[in-house]
Every structure is written in structure tokens, then in C-alpha cells.
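For practice. Supply one:
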Amino acid sequence: LNGSRSPYGACPNSVLPEYPSGGSSAGSSLAVALGVASFSLGTDTAGSGRVPAGLNNLVGLKATKGLISTAGVVPACRTLDCVTTFTATAREASQLLALTAHLDPRDEYSRSNPQWNDGSAFGTPRHLRFGVPRAQDLEFFGCPEGPLLFGDAIDQLKALGGEAVELDMSPFLEAARLLYEGPWVAERYSVAGELMEQKPEAVLPVIQAVLAKAPAVTGVQTFRAQYRLQALKALCDKALEGLDYVVTPTIGRPVTLAQLDAEPVLRNSELGYYTNFMNLLDYAAVAVPSAFMGNGLPWGVTLFGRAFTDQYLLSVADAFQRQQGLATPAPTTVARNDRARLVVCGAHLDGLALNWQLKRRGARLVESTFSSPDYQLYALAGGPPFRPGMVRVKDGGVAIAVEVWEVPSSELGSFLTGIPAPLGLGKVQLADGRWESGFICEAYGLEGAVDISHLGGWRAYLQSLA
């Protein structure tokens, strides 16, 4: 992760030459940081795209595994390797991702990009709920500036409308340790082992030391590690369910080239503290510049989240950069992720008869609010379950009490096909002017229905019957 191991000599940092560029995608990051290229490609197995970005004031996108083809890439860990991009702005990274995120038959690990994560998903993020590591999980390795800079970054994210939520990072960090302490070193050895055996002088001593235990890794150890990783992923996925993303420092503490030379394994391990778990757990991540340290060295944070939320993370990074004064135009559309917002007004309200249909699909309540004052609410004929119909009208409308839920996009189709006539999904305007997908009722369904608009909502109607 340091960029100091190259047949052409160590790559110095683009700002302070006594510090490393970060690596292993050292040259790629420097090409952009020094203005040689407008963007570049790198790789990232343990942090090789994010660490150089953080050290050189760049945006480093480590997309979801398999989203950008690795065909033609010399592997490190074939099951974990990712192609990354280096750009000056998150907007440029979004444009690059939209061009490169395609299924590639030449790459057996390539994955299709869902439509909720295509280029049109890049936009302006709305209310954000983001995770922040607990104090006991943060590690700055003695750097006095790190905690202050990270605190400033959190404040800036809050200023974007974000709500910070404390996150237990211990399962993430345990997963990170598996990368070098577990059997994945054997996967690296499958690439470099033959060279190490036939021409040991061609392999740096530090690399030989890291991979030395690989031949002794057994199948039993490998499966036990996979079982543990899966258990940790279940914990981590659960922790991310109610969050839009998580923010961490990109690195805890920068180190000089001299410090790297003195203790290469230890310092490399420190650089990967916040990066090593990402591909093992199958998350998307983007490193974004945040500040400059007292000596002028760039410092940044990483935003990460569930697989296939890449464009959403880039949208947050874009808003973060614009808040810092970057002169890029604000997107005119709302950012999307792997959750679809749904407005409900009747039996799907929290705790009512059909609410289980949302909760079983992993939906979560975002807010209780009102529609714009342009609707009428009817108690429809038939039942049980008894249901209302909400109809937009030109005159005589009122504001109706509604709830906004977030439903996993992968579950929305099955929910939609289960909605009986005369109800369906369309666009509903809320009191603040937003338009969201929500329940609407076809006009023919009002035959035999009772107008209950004056009660202002379905709950009030049910209470009036009690």
C-alpha cells in the first residue's frame, strides 16, 4: 500500500517527496495528481486504489467487485481484485464508472450492474444516515491531527443534512485481519509462488516473508476461514441495513519513506487498517479529499456502503467536494441507491394490517409526513383487509397523513405485482413538494367508496370506527 517497491525506484508523494505516493497503484495516482493525465486506472485488493488517492488529494473509486472488468489484469487475489479509477472529482469518477461498468464475458468474476446503479443514479443526495466508527475502533497510530481532521469531515457531512450514527466496527476490522493472517495469502502465492521457488532473488524479502506461510495453508484452514468470514459478513451487512453509507479515515497516519524502509510490514499494515476488509466483505468504496495536514500533506476520508451503491457514494462525495468549495455544478436530479422510496397511506402504514409485506422485504420507515393538499381519501368497498384509495384532484383536496418507507430495490418488483386492483403505484406529491413513488387509486375503484378526506388519514378513520 506504500508505492515504494518499483523497479524504477520508490514513487514519491506528489506534494511532499519525503512521503510515499501510496500504492500499489503508485504511478497511476501520480499521473493524475501531477497533471499528466485527466484520469487513470489502478487496482485495489487491499486498498491500493484508495490509499494513493488519499495521499495525493484525489478521488479514488474502488467499485463493487466485478463491476469493472479485470480482464488483462495481473492478479494478486483473483477473487478479490478490483480495477479502480483516479480522478480529481467525484463527478468525473461517476462518468467513468457509467462507461466501464459492464458485464465482460472475458472475466469470470464480472457482474452485471443493476439499473439503480447506472449513470443516472448520480445526483444530489437527500437526508443521509451515515455510520461513524466508535471511538474505541478508531486508530490514528499516534497522529495528533487525525482525530481533529476526521471530526471536521463528520461535521461537513452533517452540514449536508446527514445524521451520524455510531457504528461498531469490530466485525469489519476482524474481517480485515483475515486478508493477511488467513488463507488468502495462499491465493497470492498461487500467482507468485512459482517465481519465488524458481527465482527467489527476483522477489523482495518483505514479500517472501509475507507469503512464506502460504504453502502450509490447508484446505481445512481455508474452509474455516471462509465460514468465519461469512459470519462476519452477516454481522456487517446487518449493521449497514439502516445506513446510507459509512465514513472512515482513508488512512490513520501518513508515514515517511524512511519509516517505511525501517518497518515495512508494520507500516503497510497501518496504512491498510481502514481498507483491508472492503473486498472481503464485498462493499463499494470511494476515497475523497477532505483537508490538508499542517505540513501540507493531503488527508481524506473514505465513504463505503453496500455492493452496487457506487453511484450513490459518488453523489455524496460530489456534494462533499462542492461543500469544500470545488466549483462543479450541482446535479439537478436526486441521487439513487439500492433502496426505493415508497409512500403508503393505508393498510401498509406502520403496525397496520399489511405492514408486514414491507417489513418482510427489509423495508424501513423513513418518515411520517403529509401529502400536498391536492388529494382526497376514500374508504374503498370490500375487504378485509380494508383499504383506502388516495386520488389526486384539481379542487377540494386536502393533505393526507402518509408514511415514507425505503424498500430494497430488488424487492420492489414482487411488491408491485402483489398490489390488487384498483390500487397501483404512481407518483405522489408530498407536503414539501417532493414527488415520490406511492399508492394511487384508479377512478373506477371509487364506486361504492366513502369519502373520508375530512379525517385527514387512514389511522384517523380507523379510530373513528372504534
The first strand starts at residue 40 and ends at 44. The chain is about 30% helix and 20% strand. The chain has two domains: 26-171+243-323, 339-465.
